[in-house]
Amino acid sequence: MTVADWDPEGLRRWLPELRLLTRRGPLRAAIADYCQACARSGVTVVFVPEIAGARAYGATRWLAPHRPLVQLSLRGRTDDQLWETAAHELGHVLMHDRRAVFIDTGEDEPDTAETAEAAADAREHEATAFARELLIPPAAETRLLGSRRVEDVLGFAAGVGVAASIVAARLQRHGIWSPRQAGRLKRRIEDRDLPDLAAARSAPDDASRRARRANRPHPGQRGD
Question: What is the pTM of this model?
Answer without folding.
Answer: 0.79
